[in-house]
């Protein structure tokens, strides 16, 4: 950054005979680091001349950062994803493996093509070649100046380093400012020489596009050489611009041109003191500030000997553009050479044109090791009739944020701008603290400058990562304080990657203590309160954003009070206290209502009561009352206040004894209103969690296997929970499967394999709802964070370095195999019995001979009940061929699955020898009755074949034995070619479930390059679990997965029941090995069942910048966003459906989309088109599907909608196109509407009529629906209510009554609610289906009647549907759905059968 946006020009003419031009010197470095200079070339491209990169710990914090940097420089289709040695034999995966002075090859895949490095090093002229610019790098947008401030210059003057006479004017167009690398390439072509670095005219390095744009309008272009000082004059190339706020003078139109080009000559006399070592070897510069603008830095040098020696006077003649009346100067040096310190005695300025003279007595050191350490000084100049500006020492308080790795060791510079100019760029290096810019620390600096008037903004720029909270500048001259809020990163690897920011003072952050002298202290106190209040509000918003997930409807919570040391309890009689323990059943609450931060907390034990604030008293009241609505107000300490939504200001409060504090409570020290919120069920099995380390950071697995606490709170930081036993879990990276968090050998990383070193005991911290993870293998060691955020084993303290704040992304299940949540144990038993009965019926139907086996299974499942955490002895008998590979076990029960379990011991080489039986001890969590196991090995040994004879499991307490008889080969060569096998439990000599060999047909598409040599994996999912991920190894074809080919495989697994989905994975090393799969068909021998899973997609595929190697395929057809390649002939009734999503921002959806098609004969639907979670329905895309509409007759309407699931369910649907594949009949149905709860009427469905061959389309009718809730006690409901209107021309579909037109709260007792839905005309209404989902306080609803009014072009109708019954599972007949028949209708003519009241 330059000192100011200066546009004055200057020239220098040495007039003294003393001295000569000093030789260029390097700027001093304060923190030398070890650097490696390495050349990188492009795989297989000898024409690419290579790039040279300096690698050190500051420039690249990780290996991924180096790959990202090279991706912008080396032109590869998918960026640089692999670095290898010149011959391609060894891949580089860590920065430490790179050697200084060596050359390496870059590629986007594992395959590397060597190049002739000697040929590649003979580079062409740089301006004739192109610098590679990555298409993946986000463009840097041009910064826009704040209102009232001068805009960034659109034209730029570029000087050649060391040669100010060679200069070019460059227009900063969007084309050349796409990225900093592109801009350097453009300058290389303009300057006809390599441009590698840019400098400001005063010699400071320019590191980004933002620094170029916000600079003075001039840069110095250099190659690899250091900066060479010179007079870089920009006046001839840029139009005049004044300093911020210096002058508002408007020159007369007639002489504006001559005035702008006016210049003056000055003679400058500089006397160096005669003190010892007063002279300097550094380069001296001077800047003149005038009323209109400032000059550029003018370097003072000559050609006749050394300058600025002890006791010498040096004279220079300079030419300066029209800067207006001179009011101050800045003198400084570059701190270069062997003895840069300088003591200046005085400076004299003579205007050779007007005769004006200025005398400046300096008598100051400009030295890092003298006085205040400054190497530049400012001095005011006295003009007749003008007041002299005072020299002010500004106090600068810089607050570093509290995020992990927020501190910096880089040099930090500041430039303060005011009404009267700026301070120039000053380094903040000497503070009251021993170490500057540490995390959470406020550093105080003092900066001397001529008074700037009212401050307007400042700019900051460090050299590496730094999180800045704010800057407070105190002006002792006016006693003003200015606050500049930032609260952002200055880091090339964080936020928007900018390391320079302009901060503006807000109106309410400027405080004057001198306006009213009487009230100085109260005003200052008020200002401090305002500033702190702003920071407090910001912290509260961030805390709510981090904690709001806890209050999602359906979550179960506990409220802990730190003062009482107990949990809030709601007793059956309505009493409330805060003395419960964490196991108290009355201290658990369900979130049954959530709107913003307003919630209703219903007792988990007594569902008719909720926490309430009634006239300021905490009590329990009937759920749904207005007093039960509480507003959650989070504090920066992660504690929450519970305030009445009905009466703001009334909060839930307790005294030290845990009793309710009423309005008479006066001692705030003995009163507590803050609560720590805990969510139940955070660490259930298979849950996906995020371990937050701060409000916006999380524990993240790095590509090199290390863990850091500075990761973003995104998918990269998700961990899957594997519950080992109560309170003990493993954490597997979701992004990198099979990599577990662990503590081992004094390190904490994410390279665990699931052994004991990955087991952690979860310690809950009641003070802040955080957790700490203690290693069970190394008790006393916890997962901790160093100051830079790197994970490291630590001893437990109460500091935050061992605290993590869990956030649940996806809740796990106590019963992973269960399909439904049941309200009681009795219902759960009934439900389980039904499932078992269904399974056994299916087994008997398949094979009558297995009826006796089924009885045994029934007896086995009903009689064997295991402990919640079981210890088992596993005996593995090896046949005549052993293996020394890593063996893994999965155990499946009817209530869950445990695995992978690694079967290993200290002496692994002695395991699984021929004829040997090996014994292992394993722990299984509550998985119910075991019915199968899966066992396999990874084939890593020299002997890849393993003959498994038998597996036996024995319960250590009950001594029950489970036999898994086998005599199978686990080998990719022998038998089925699979190194994994599944074994059912054998009871009474027969398996409880049969072993099925599923026939899997994999169709490779006909598209060009559809074939692959990559390994393909498949996993089958059914009603009874999954088959595990299997390598499709042994095909019926000699070469697998060729274009247009059908490969047949067998997957042996214990019967999965009805198949639901399959998972495909393609491990492609580069794009040439991508695979296009048409579909997968699975057949079960002995049955006619055939499961078709349509894919029509390339694997891997890219979505939102992430490459996905696997995809789930469901039984419903889910097509890709491209024209489907229909290989077989179309069947009768096949239609092609094209769904066009709009190109608005966030137009795509994450929900599952459904389609109904109505014909004259019948309706086809619901047809599940797919989910946005599977990369469908993205903005500005057309998704194509094939559906069958056989025998539905002539189509007259469709209905399309979604289930409102996922993170962003709202959807903008532009058009639906239906095309008959056989007849080419085509309907284009424009929609152009949002389908979302918060848009239009909140309806999640749209109906569109279709014009027939000889018929006009039916009209779309607005149906007004009046719902009369009864007047009986408890008649109201907060459940979601649904209605389906049925007439002579079909139905409206099940619609949620979402927005009441006349009431804010729906379905209150005795209330009439008015809703409206749009549907294609239904003809004469016959009946309605009304229902609710039973959610909310109370499951019941007493419905009086429904009146439906409709108007179309010809007539209007009003129909009454009486009910007068409960929709309640505990009232009347227990039904929550009613079919209501039309009793009467009133036409436009006024005739009616009865009166509707």
UniProtKB/TrEMBL annotation:
Its main location: other. It comes from the Eukaryota. It holds the Pfam family DCX. Residues 36-118, 154-233 form the Doublecortin domain. Residues 1-25 are annotated as: Disordered. Gene3D superfamilies: 2.80.10.50, Catalase core domain, Doublecortin domain, PLAT/LH2 domain. The keyword Oxidoreductase does not apply. InterPro entries: Doublecortin_dom (IPR003533), Doublecortin_dom_sf (IPR036572), IL1/FGF (IPR008996), Inner_ear_hair_cell_LOXHD (IPR052970), PLAT/LH2_dom (IPR001024), PLAT/LH2_dom_sf (IPR036392). GO terms for biological process: cell projection organization; intracellular signal transduction; response to light stimulus; visual perception. Residues 1-20 have a biased composition (Polar residues). Microtubule-associated protein regulating the stability and length of the microtubule-based axoneme of photoreceptors. Required for the differentiation of photoreceptor cells, it plays a role in the organization of the outer segment of rod and cone photoreceptors ensuring the correct orientation and higher-order stacking of outer segment disks along the photoreceptor axoneme. Interacts (via the doublecortin domains) with microtubules. Interacts with RP1L1. Interacts with MAK. This is Oxygen-regulated protein 1. It comes from Aotus nancymaae (Ma's night monkey). The lineage of its organism: Eukaryota, Metazoa, Chordata, Craniata, Vertebrata.
């Amino acid at each position: 950054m330059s000192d100011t946006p200066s546009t004055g020009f200057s020239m220098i003419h040495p007039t003294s005979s003393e001295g000569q031009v000093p030789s260029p010197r390097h700027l001093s470095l304060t923190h030398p680091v070890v650097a490696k200079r390495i050349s990188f070339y492009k795989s297989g491209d000898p024409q690419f001349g290579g790039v040279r990169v300096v690698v050190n710990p500051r420039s690249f914090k990780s290996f991924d950062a180096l790959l990202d940097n090279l991706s912008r420089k080396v032109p590869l289709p998918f960026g640089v994803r692999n670095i290898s040695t010149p011959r391609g034999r060894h891949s580089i995966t860590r920065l430490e493996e790179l050697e200084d002075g060596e050359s390496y090859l870059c590629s986007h895949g594992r395959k590397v093509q060597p190049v002739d490095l000697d040929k590649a090093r003979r580079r062409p002229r740089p301006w004739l070649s192109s610098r590679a610019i990555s298409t993946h790098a986000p463009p840097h947008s041009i910064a826009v100046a704040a209102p009232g401030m001068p805009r960034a210059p659109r034209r730029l003057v570029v000087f050649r380093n060391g040669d100010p006479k060679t200069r070019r004017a460059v227009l900063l167009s969007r084309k050349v400012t796409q990225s900093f690398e592109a801009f350097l390439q453009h300058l290389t072509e303009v300057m006809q020489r390599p441009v590698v670095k840019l400098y400001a005219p005063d010699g400071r390095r320019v590191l980004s596009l933002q620094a170029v744009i916000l600079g003075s309008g001039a840069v110095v272009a250099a190659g690899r050489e250091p900066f060479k000082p010179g007079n870089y004059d920009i006046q001839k190339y840029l139009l005049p611009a004044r300093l911020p706020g210096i002058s508002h003078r408007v020159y007369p139109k007639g002489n504006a041109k001559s005035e702008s080009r006016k210049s003056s000559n000055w003679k400058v006399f500089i006397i160096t003191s005669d003190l010892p070592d007063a002279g300097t070897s550094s380069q001296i510069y001077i800047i003149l500030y005038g009323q209109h603008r400032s000059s550029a830095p003018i370097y003072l040098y000559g050609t006749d000997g050394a300058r600025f020696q002890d006791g010498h006077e040096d004279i220079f003649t300079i030419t300066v553009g029209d800067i207006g009346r001179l009011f101050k100067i800045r003198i400084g040096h570059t701190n270069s050479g062997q003895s840069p310190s300088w003591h200046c005695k005085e400076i004299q300025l003579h205007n050779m044109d007007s005769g004006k003279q200025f005398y400046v007595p300096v008598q100051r050191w400009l030295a890092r090791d003298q006085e205040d350490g400054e190497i530049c000084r400012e001095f005011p100049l006295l003009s007749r009739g003008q007041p002299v500006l005072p020299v002010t020492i500004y106090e600068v308080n810089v607050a570093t944020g509290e995020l992990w790795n927020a501190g910096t060791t880089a040099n930090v510079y500041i430039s303060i701008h005011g009404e009267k100019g700026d301070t120039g760029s000053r380094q903040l290096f000497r503070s009251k603290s021993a170490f500057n810019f540490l995390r959470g620390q406020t550093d105080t600096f003092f900066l001397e400058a001529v008074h700037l008037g009212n401050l307007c903004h400042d700019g900051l720029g460090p050299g590496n990562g730094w999180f800045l909270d704010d800057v407070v500048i105190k002006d002792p001259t006016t006693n003003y304080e200015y606050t500049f809020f930032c609260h952002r990163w200055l880091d090339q690897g964080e936020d928007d990657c900018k390391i320079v920011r302009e901060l503006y003072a807000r109106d309410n952050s400027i405080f004057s203590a001198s306006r009213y002298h009487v009230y100085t202290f109260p005003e200052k106190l008020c200002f401090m309160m305002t500033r702190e209040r702003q920071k407090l509000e910001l912290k509260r918003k961030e805390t709510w954003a981090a904690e709001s997930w806890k209050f999602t409807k359906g979550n179960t919570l506990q409220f802990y009070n730190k003062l009482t040391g107990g949990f809030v309890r709601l007793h059956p009689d309505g009493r409330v206290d805060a003395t419960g323990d964490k196991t108290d059943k009355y201290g658990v609450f369900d979130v049954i209502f959530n709107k913003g931060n307003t919630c209703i907390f219903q007792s988990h034990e007594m569902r008719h009561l909720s926490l309430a604030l009634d006239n300021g008293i905490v009590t329990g009241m009937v759920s749904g009352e207005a007093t039960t609505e509480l507003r959650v107000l989070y504090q920066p300490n992660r504690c929450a206040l519970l305030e009445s939504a009905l009466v703001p200001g009334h909060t839930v409060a307790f005294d030290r004894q845990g009793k309710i504090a009423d309005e008479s409570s006066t001692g705030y020290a003995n009163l507590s209103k803050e609560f720590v919120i805990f969510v139940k069920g955070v660490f259930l099995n298979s849950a996906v969690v995020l371990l937050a380390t701060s409000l916006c950071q999380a524990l993240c697995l790095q590509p090199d296997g290390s863990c850091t606490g500075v990761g973003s709170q995104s998918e990269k930081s998700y961990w899957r929970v594997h519950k080992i036993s109560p309170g003990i879990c493993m954490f597997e990276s979701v992004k990198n499967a099979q990599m577990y968090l662990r503590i081992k050998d004094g390190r904490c990383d994410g390279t665990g394999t699931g052994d004991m070193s990955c087991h952690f005991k979860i310690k809950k911290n009641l003070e802040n709802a955080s957790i700490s993870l203690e290693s069970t293998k190394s008790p006393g060691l916890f997962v901790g964070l160093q100051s830079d955020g790197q994970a490291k084993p630590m001893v437990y303290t109460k500091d935050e370095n061992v605290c993590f704040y869990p956030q649940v992304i996806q809740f796990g299940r106590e019963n992973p195999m269960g399909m439904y949540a049941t309200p009681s144990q009795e219902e759960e038993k009934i439900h389980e019995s039904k499932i078992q009965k269904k399974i056994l019926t299916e087994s008997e139907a398949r094979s009558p001979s297995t009826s006796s086996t089924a009885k045994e299974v029934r007896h086995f499942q009903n009689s064997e009940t295991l402990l919640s955490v079981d210890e088992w002895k596993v005996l593995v008998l090896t046949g005549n061929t052993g293996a020394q590979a890593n063996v893994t076990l999965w155990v499946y029960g009817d209530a869950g699955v445990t695995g992978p379990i690694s079967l290993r011991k200290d002496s692994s080489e002695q395991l699984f020898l021929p004829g040997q039986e090996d014994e292992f001890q394993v722990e299984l969590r509550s998985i119910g009755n075991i019915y199968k196991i899966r066992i396999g090995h990874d084939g890593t040994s020299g002997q890849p074949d393993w003959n498994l004879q038998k597996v036996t499991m024995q319960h250590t307490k009950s001594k029950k034995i489970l036999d898994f008889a086998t005599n199978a080969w686990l080998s990719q060569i022998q038998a089925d070619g699979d190194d994994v096998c599944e074994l059912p439990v054998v009871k009474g000599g027969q398996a409880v479930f049969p072993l099925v060999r599923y026939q899997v047909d994999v169709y490779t598409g006909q598209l060009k390059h559809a074939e692959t040599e990559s390994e393909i994996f498949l996993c089958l999912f059914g009603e009874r679990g999954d088959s595990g991920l299997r390598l499709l190894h042994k095909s019926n074809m000699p070469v697998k997965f060729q274009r247009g080919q059908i490969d047949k495989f067998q997957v042996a697994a214990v019967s999965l029941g009805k198949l639901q989905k399959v998972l495909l994975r393609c491990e492609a090393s580069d794009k040439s090995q991508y695979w296009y799969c048409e579909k997968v068909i699975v057949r079960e021998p002995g049955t006619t069942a055939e499961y078709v899973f349509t894919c029509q997609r390339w694997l891997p595929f890219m979505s939102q910048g992430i490459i996905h190697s696997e995809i789930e395929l469901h039984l419903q057809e889910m097509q890709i966003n491209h024209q489907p390649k229909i290989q077989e002939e179309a069947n009768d009734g096949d239609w092609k459906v094209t769904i066009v999503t709009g190109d608005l921002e966030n137009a795509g959806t994450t929900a599952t989309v459904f389609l109904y098609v109505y014909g004259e004969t019948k309706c086809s639907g619901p047809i599940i088109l797919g989910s946005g979670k599977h990369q469908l329905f993205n903005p500005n895309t057309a998704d194509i599907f094939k559906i069958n509409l056989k025998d539905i007759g002539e189509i007259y309407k469709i209905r399309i909608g979604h289930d409102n699931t996922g993170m962003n369910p709202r959807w903008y649907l532009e058009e639906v196109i239906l095309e008959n594949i056989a007849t080419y009949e085509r309907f284009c149905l424009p929609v152009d509407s949002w389908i979302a709860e918060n848009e239009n009427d909140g309806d999640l469905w749209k109906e569109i009529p279709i014009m027939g061959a000889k018929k006009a389309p039916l009209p779309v009718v607005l149906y007004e629906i009046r719902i009369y809730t009864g007047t009986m006690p408890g008649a109201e409901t907060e459940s979601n209510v649904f209605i389906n209107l049925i007439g002579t021309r079909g139905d409206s579909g099940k619609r949620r009554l979402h927005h009441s037109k006349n009431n804010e709260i729906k379905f209150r007792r005795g209330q009439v609610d008015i809703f409206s839905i749009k549907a294609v005309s239904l003809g004469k209404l016959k009946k309605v289906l009304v229902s609710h989902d039973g959610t909310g306080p109370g499951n019941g609803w007493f419905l009086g009647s429904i009146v439906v009014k409709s108007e179309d072009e010809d007539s209007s109708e009003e129909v009454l549907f009486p009910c007068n019954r409960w929709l309640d599972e505990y009232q009347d007949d227990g039904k929550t759905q009613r079919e209501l028949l039309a009793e009467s209708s009133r036409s436009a003519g006024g005739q009616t059968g009865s009166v509707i009241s």
